[in-house]
Each structure stands twice: as C-alpha cells, then as structure tokens.
C-alpha cells in the first residue's frame, strides 16, 4: 500500500513542509490578484512618458497615433522602478502599448502588423518581464490581475464584480472591461478556495478526514461562485464586439503568418544588438520572438484546482488512463505516488505566461498534493457500493465529487461560451467590412513588383530581390481566441528591407488578394471561417477537441 508523506521531521530532507501563500506572491484575500488594487499611475515623474500615452490611450489608438508616439518615447531605465506594484503596472502598460503598436495598424494608410517593437518598448518590457519572471507579451496577469480598480471602497464586498472597473482597455468599450472583469472577479471569489487547498493538503498529513471534508466544501463553494460568474459574461460582453473588436489586440506573435508575422516579432535593442551583418538574415530570423497571446488559460487558478483535485490532462488527442475508480485505486497500489507525469503540453506551456511565483506554486503544489489519493484510499470498494451515508469517508467522497462536478460544469459552460463568442461569430462574419488591406511596404516596393515577387516566391523558395513575400491563394484561415492559429503555412524566406524607422526584416505578409480570397473583409485576426474548417487552438490544436478533452478528463476523475 502506498505511504502518505509522513509528518515533518526537521532533519528529514523529504519532510512535508506546508506551502505558504506569501512565498508564492499569492494573496490570502485575493488569491492570484494582488491584495491592494493595482497602481493607477507610477508616481515617479520619470515614467511620465509612459503614463502620458496611457492617459489618452484609447484616443491615440483610435486616431492611429500610437506607433508615432511610441517611436518617439525615450528608452526608460527600469531600475528606477521601486516596488513590485510598480513593476506590475509597468508590465501592464507596456503590454498595452506593445500590442497597440504591433496590431494597431492604420488600414487606410495600408499599414500592416509590425514585425518589430522599437527599443523604447522592448528594452524596458523585457527587463520588467524578467523581474516578474513572465514572458514579455500580453497575458492574463496584465489584463485581468494587474488592471482593476475598486469603485466603492466602502462596499459590502469591495471585490464584487459590480464594484470593479478596469484601468485600461484597447477598445474603450464596456464589453472589453467586462470581459476582463469576469476573470478578475472569479480570481477574487476563489481566494478562499486556494486557502482551502492548503487546508486539504495539510489534512492529508494529519490524516484528518473531517478537516479534509470541510476543506473540500470550501473548494466547492469557490467553484460554485466561479460557475455563477462565468455565465455573467453574457450580460455585458457582446460576442460580436468581443470577436471582431477586442480579440485582435490580444493576439500574440506565434503562428501568425496569415496576420503578417510569419517569424514573430523582433524586440529591437534586445535581440538585434550584436547582429553581425544585415546580410545574414538567417541569423536575424532566429532572433524573432514567438509568443502566444493573452488567454484566461493563463490563469493559475484552474490549474491549481486541477492539481489539487488530481485532475490530469494528457496531450490533446491522447486521453489519459483515469477510467474507473477501481482501476485508479489499483494503479495507486501498484505505482504508489510515482506515476510518470504526462501532461497536456499546451496547459504546461501556459505556465510561462504566469508570474514566476504563481508558476512555482503550481509546481510545488503538484509535488506535495495527494488529496485525490487520500480520498481514493479512504473509500473501500464495499463502502462505495453500499454507500453508507453519514460515514465520514462517504461525506468526504461526496464533497470531493461535488468539486469534480463543479469543475466539469465550469468547463461545460466555458465550451458553450467559446461556441457563442468564437465559433458562431467566425461562422457569421463581420457586419461591417473593413477597408481592403495592402502591403505595408507599398511605399517601398511598387505593388506590381510585389505581385511579381509573390509569383516568383511561390515558384521557388528563394526570396525575390527587394520584395516582400506572401501568397495570394493561401488557404482560408480558421480562427482561434485569442490567437489566430490555423493551417501551418509553408513559410517563404523573408526579404530584408530597410525601412525608414528600423532595420528589422520586413516579414512576409499575404497580399490583398489573399485576404479577399479568405473573407474579403481585411481583418486578419478575427475572421470568418470557411465551411468545414476547425477552430484551432494556440498550440495548433483543434480548440474544441482540446476543451472537450479537458472537460472529459475532469468528469473521469470522479470517485
Ligand atoms: C468570452 C469569453 C471566453 C472565451 C471566448 C474563451 C475562449 C477560450 C479558448 C478558445 C480556449 C482554448 C485555449 C486558448 O486558446 O487559450 C480557452 C481556454 C481556457 N479558458 Fe477561456 N474563454 C473565455 C473566458 C474564460 C474565462 C472567464 C475563464 C476563467 C477564468 C476562462 C478560462 C479558461 C481556461 C482555464 C482555459 C484552459 C482550458 C481549461 O482549463 O479548461 N476562459 N478559453
């Protein structure tokens, strides 16, 4: 029979040491949100060049001033940031400016996505991200964890969703605020569930079923709140606005060939400093960064509940072994606690988009948590069959199963909203056609030569001299939130073009014709899908297949 970790002994290196939330930058009251509301401004006037842009961010984005203003911004020294709250604010506002710079193109001027970030953004952003131990790209923490304010400090429940506001949005719409706030409010409401996880872990050590049952009830309470809040998204976030107006700014730069970024984005002043020669484009191309964009899949919350409850997720398409209870118990007897971890790589990868402390919490929790095993071993087969209501073991099992049912219900509801917010929108198409899109480099390369270059590029793998590459019969691009990632395209080599403002390689962008052949609407991040296409996930997987598998794995964990 497998042994549970023994009570701690000071000299035993394998001793159980209880996890303490403060060691992982987790708030006892607000969970993965900071305890105090995020800063609305960095008070040091040195950072005014950033704050002044944020003062009129929506207006500048609407008027297409962002790129010009960001280019003019000085490169600020992040060593002047003093507190963690300042680093978090810096990360959030740099994320908004960076994504506005990359995706905030002026289509009337035939601009396309930018394949570089100027040093004024990239140098401080990379440095702040390093401090926070998170990828320098927009993420759940930037828009949901560090981007909220309390409206009425004296409210009965200050963290109630109806008492919260956002600090920043791209669109300036209430829909976008609400989209972020649903996640923010879920995080706050589930703080007691995170505390309860630690109680449950401790009760395994104490072999205390009563404490375990109580902790499981508290986890269930949080999950019930999360379920209630999740469906409130329908109240104030219009699926049309979400799909066609918001999500394009949340996209990252991975699998974004069709959006004009086949190689990702070059962080100027960070990754190009020692470029040996501009002729060695192959060398430079490796320095382009590829990151997924923002998604609530980057919240540590659901992963923490998964780990706590022993819900395992396997690579998409390879459903795991968790089948019957007796099988699970048999495996536990045979393998003890040393089952090899086989994880869903997408979910694991999303941890790089979480702050370092939160990522480490998930790792350490996985190493210490044996809640499911405890419940499983406490319930004999006879007891499970006879169902002695009132027995401590049975109540514990019921409390555990209630948590599983609520996790499954959450994922069912989530699948429904993905259907309404993404799939239905992608199938319908936009109401308002965007202006046609042409190559950003049309001022550099005459359109006719561009087209000839395209034709040459498609007949060979060598880049045409001085021209950008693309394909005017690229396949239709099914769509994914928040990153559009679809068919993998055969990437042509980029052509180095020295632009007026930077020396980054101009990336291959599909031509106008290629967009009209997909949906004719010009918007490359939110787009109509062709009949029969699947909506693909960030990791290149079929989103629905991924989400349904994650849901089914949850249901299979019931004891
Ligand atoms: C309009 C609202 C939403 C849409 C359209 C949406 C869409 C998606 C999509 C397409 C995925 C697949 C992977 C990816 O691309 O990142 C995903 C994953 C995920 N989303 Fe959402 N989402 C929404 C709201 C939320 C909210 C409010 C939460 C809760 C905090 C949430 C939590 C998750 C989690 C945890 C995953 C990973 C899969 C899982 O653990 O079940 N989502 N979401």
From TrEMBL:
Identify the EC number(s). 1.13.11.52
EC supergroup of this enzyme:
oxidoreductase
- Alphabetically ordered keywords of this record: Dioxygenase, Oxidoreductase
Protein name stated in the entry: Tryptophan 2,3- dioxygenase
């Amino acid at each position: 029979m497998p042994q549970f970790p023994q009570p701690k002994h000071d000299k035993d290196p394998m001793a159980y040491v209880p996890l303490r939330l403060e060691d992982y930058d987790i708030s006892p009251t607000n969970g993965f949100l900071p305890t105090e509301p995020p800063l609305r401004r960095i008070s040091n006037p040195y950072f005014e060049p950033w704050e002044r842009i944020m003062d009129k961010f929506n207006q500048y984005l609407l008027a297409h001033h962002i790129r010009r203003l960001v280019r003019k911004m000085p490169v600020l020294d992040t060593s002047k940031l003093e507190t963690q709250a300042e680093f978090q604010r810096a990360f959030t506002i740099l994320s908004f400016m960076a994504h506005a710079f990359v995706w905030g193109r002026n289509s009337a001027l035939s601009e396309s996505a930018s394949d570089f970030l100027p040093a004024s953004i990239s140098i401080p952003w990379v440095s702040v991200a390093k401090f926070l131990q998170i990828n320098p790209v927009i993420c759940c923490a930037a828009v949901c964890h560090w981007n909220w304010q309390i409206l009425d400090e004296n409210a009965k429940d200050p963290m109630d969703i109806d008492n919260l506001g956002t600090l920043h949005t791209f669109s300036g719409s209430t829909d976008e605020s609400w989209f972020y706030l649903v996640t923010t409010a879920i995080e706050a409401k589930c703080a007691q569930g995170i505390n309860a996880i630690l109680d449950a872990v401790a009760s395994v050590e104490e072999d205390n079923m009563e404490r375990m049952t109580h902790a499981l009830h508290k986890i269930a309470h949080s999950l019930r709140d999360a379920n209630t809040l999740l469906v409130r998204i329908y109240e104030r976030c219009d699926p049309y606005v979400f799909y066609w107006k918001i999500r394009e700014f949340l996209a990252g730069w991975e699998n974004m060939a069709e959006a004009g970024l086949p190689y990702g984005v070059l962080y100027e002043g960070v990754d190009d400093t020692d470029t040996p020669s501009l002729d060695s484009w192959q060398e430079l191309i490796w320095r382009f960064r590829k990151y997924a964009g923002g998604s609530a899949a980057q919240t540590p919350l659901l992963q923490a509940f998964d780990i706590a409850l022993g819900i395992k997720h396997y690579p998409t398409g390879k459903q795991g072994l968790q089948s019957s209870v007796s099988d699970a118990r048999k495996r536990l007897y045979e393998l003890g606690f040393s089952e090899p971890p086989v994880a869903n790589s997408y979910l694991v990868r999303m941890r790089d988009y979480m702050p370092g402390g939160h990522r480490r919490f998930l790792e350490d929790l996985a190493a210490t948590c044996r809640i499911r095993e405890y419940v499983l071993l406490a319930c004999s087969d006879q007891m499970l069959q006879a169902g002695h209501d009132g027995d401590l073991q049975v109540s514990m099992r019921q409390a555990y199963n209630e948590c599983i049912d609520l996790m499954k219900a959450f994922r069912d509801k989530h699948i429904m909203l993905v259907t309404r917010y993404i799939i239905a929108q992608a199938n319908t198409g936009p109401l308002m056609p965007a202006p046609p899109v042409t190559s950003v480099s049309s001022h550099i390369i005459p359109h006719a030569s561009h087209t000839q270059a395209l034709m040459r590029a498609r007949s060979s793998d060598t880049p045409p001299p001085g021209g950008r590459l693309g394909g005017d019969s690229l396949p239709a691009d099914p769509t994914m939130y928040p990153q559009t990632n679809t068919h993998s395209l055969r990437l042509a080599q980029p052509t180095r073009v020295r632009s007026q403002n930077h020396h980054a390689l101009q990336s291959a962008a599909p031509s106008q014709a290629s967009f009209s052949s997909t949906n004719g609407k010009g918007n490359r991040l939110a787009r109509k899908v062709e009949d029969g296409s699947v909506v693909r996930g960030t990791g290149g997987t079929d989103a629905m297949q991924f989400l349904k598998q994650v849901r089914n794995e949850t249901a299979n964990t019931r004891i």
